[in-house]
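Researcher: Batch entry, complex prediction.
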Amino acid sequence: MIPGIYVHIPFCLSKCAYCDFYSVTSTKKIPHFIESILKEMEMYRGIFNRFDTLYLGGGTPSLLDSAQLAEIIDGIRKCFPLSSDTEITIEVNPGDLNRKAAESLFETGINRISIGVQSFDEHILSFLGRRHSSIDAISAIEDVQNAGFGNIGLDLIYGVPGQDLESWMNTLRKALSFRPEHLSCYQLTLEPSTPLGRKYKAGEIDPPDEDLLYEFFIKTSELLEASGYTHYEVSNFARDPEFMSRHNRKYWDHTPYLGLGPAAHSFSGNRRWWNHRCVDRYIEEVNKKMPPIEKSEILTLKQLRLEALYLGLRTKMGINLQDFSERYSFDLLDKKNVVLGRLREEGLITILDNHIYPTRRGLAISDSLSLI
Amino acid sequence: MKNIRNFSIIAHIDHGKSTLADRMIQYCGVVEDRNFKNQILDNMDIERERGITIKSQAITLPYRSRDGKDYILNLIDTPGHVDFSYEVSRSLASCEGVLLLIDAAQGVQAQTVANLYMAMEHDLEIIPVINKIDLPSADVDKVMEQIDSELGLDPYASLPCSAKEGTGVEEILEAIVHRIPPPKGDPEAELATTIFDAHYDPFRGTIIHCRVFEGTIRTGDIIRLMHDETTHRVEEVGSFLLPRQKKASLSAGDVGYIIAGIKTVSDVQIGDTITLDKRPRKEPLPGFRESKPVVFASIYPIASDDYEELAMSLEKYKLNDASFVYQKDSSIALGQGFRCGFLGLLHLEIVQERLEREYNLSIILSVPSVRYRFTLNDGEVLYIDNPAYYPDPMSIATSEEPYIRAAMMFPERYMGAVMKLCKEKRGENSALSYPSPGRIELVIEMPLADVIYDFYDGLKSITQGYGSFDYDIIDYRQSSLVLLDILVNGDRVDALSQIVYRGSARERGLRACERLKEEIPRQMFKIAIQGAVGGEIISRTTISAYRKDVTAKCYGGDITRKRKLLEKQKKGKKRMKMVGSVAIPQSAFIAILKSDNT
Ligand SMILES: Nc1nc2c(ncn2[C@@H]2O[C@H](COP(=O)(O)OP(=O)(O)OP(=O)(O)O)[C@@H](O)[C@H]2O)c(=O)[nH]1
Ligand code: SF4
Ligand SMILES: [Mg+2]
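Model: Structure tokens for the complex:
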């Protein structure tokens, strides 16, 4: 239960059609932003004992050059005690990398890299509004492999309107050919505030139906598990247990994390808080020596319980019943006896050694599982 | 006394009673224009939203007539729906005259006739009013013909008006003054006061609405309610001006209110007679009848933790609605609840809505039922309104169900379709008449159980809105009955059981399965729904499971957003009742009775 740090780098050269992460397309503010990050972390000095993960996410962190990234990482090292084996992850955009950039990234101490490949199908890439091609992705993967990174993850998207199973399986097989340590396969969510979401609402695009999405999900899981990967979370696969994202797992089991940068979320104890979703406002508040927090909430036991349930049931690690009842004062096995029995009969969960584990089919409906 | 006029406005539903009352109130200037809102007497939210009157309302209007004299007009606006016809009859018992409204576009309808008879029984002066003459489809001449031929009244005594636009209102007020006789009665005689309504005031308790026929009632008097012989001390009397106005006394001829420290409206009976304890009258005024529920259903809280709260809310609700009755009940599927009796389905819907809205409860109603009568082999007679208590079929000697006499009016061209509908509903002993050319009045006897649901909607739709309907309960008739059970994933859900006519069991079973399939959302596993009679499955359907619903990503630690979504879904699910492992929405329990055409 050692906490983790997340740094949100809210810059992208252009906005992808499906994306509702917070980012701006002007890079002018990058220097100010870095100054502010360094100031914001000072506000938390001494509060957390130690961290063992650092995640540089975005936006597009690879828009910062290695010197800028090193400045942030060094700042964090000076401000907070980090474990010697700290997992330091960066998200990169294929178009932004070359061999040299990859090598200098490696020198900053970053030891895990997550590449936003999304697809090897050009039609899908352009539909999604990505600014890179599949060739860019291939060379980016080779560059980071050659630069010495031993923990590489590829992010992929399925369930894109117009995408058939074959296109997706081709992308998956192509990804597997690189034997990446980690794969994230996300089903496209059509967020209402995005261009694709609006097209969907206007009836201009037609996402795959539930049965096809289920096919995508199950086929993905089958292929990757047959290729030696562990399907350890709804959308995540690791070539070996040691490659499961240490950072992301903190989100799933209520381990504390500190989020720095605009729109970043933090959690500790039973409190969650998040920063202003606006770079200018963020910089302004930090300069006034104010924590740039937009809002915070104290979670009730009931809310914590619901989160633990839905996050736990998204993972292969499932829910440790003993632990659950101690942390959230709720004896699941006793209180939800009938429904759990039924779910087990239906092959959606297994109950073993005082754990509830979702099966593959269970993972596909884990949102509902958590509403029992 | 000679300048008092007591009258009710009666009509078929929606013919404009409350709107006309509005205009008269405005004309008499009791409410300042800026405080005025439409259907001012319909003061419950639910009345205003639905645009219907649920409760009679009385109001006193001071009126200076054209002859220069001042009059006190006591107006009672009545509900139009059949469920509340007893209330209407009590209002009529308090008057000397009525305005019988007829919609100029729709003409005479079934309840126009029923209301006319009721007014004639009470020997009232009847002023026909043709309303809505502003409508392009208004046909005043035709309505005058109908007044003559169908109602047997003098068409030239009728007054045209548009309650909406306020035309003709003064003529109506003049007619009230000159045609309706003033009340009679001796203010010195023994007190005889009839209760025509009561409502609950959180600060004052029950407020009795009454009409004094004989004698005088004063603050401080000890009154006696003749039906149950209870006595109370009068705290206040007054008249229904806006706002209520305290008076020293009410005398023969007056309509007004009495506050006498009576806790709940159930402690007084509508139609009962009030007299003075120390100088009582010998006989109560005629016409009293206890109001009897005809439709029954059980109410359960959706979350069983809310049982206590439901109990408290029902108690409070009951303070204000004497015709609602309830007692404890329990269901294997739905837990602890209450068995409730209603005047009809509209009443049931209103109670449900008010409980949810005014008491913020989430409740489930079981399938509504009428009250059946079973005679057992050993001669014992059982009245059963709850399928849970359906007797052992082997022990039943005869079974009977309540029948009604329905009166319908509609244009001749719909005759075939209406007869077909009535036959489907097991109608018998029909009698036809032609009150005027091209119009039919059909009187037919039908089982109440088949009528409470859908019949009226069905009639309206096949007659394209031209058919109207009214009914009285007549008697019990022998009938072959069975218990139809519904099984969800093999478990019997007792709250979905119905007592049905044997000949319709299969069709009702099919319908129930279909409706449940529509109402129950897909869930994590397949749901099998079956209808069964005496252990034999007569209908079945399945709801397939959904397979994929998970969101891809809980990114950047923004767990809150996703949790909020789930909380919302969970709330939605809370509105459903868990039966075993299946979530059944509230709507399913009533939908089960509905047929396709509604
Ligand atoms: N055009 C027109 N519409 C009217 C007139 N009088 C009433 N209405 C409309 O008819 C509908 C029913 O009016 P209400 O006054 O609520 O009828 P009601 O007889 O009190 O109805 P219940 O209490 O439900 O029996 C409303 O939509 C009124 O606005 C009228 O003179 N002309
Ligand atoms: S690069 Fe990433 S953060 Fe930027 S717009 Fe595209 S998906 Fe969103
Ligand atoms: Mg009305």
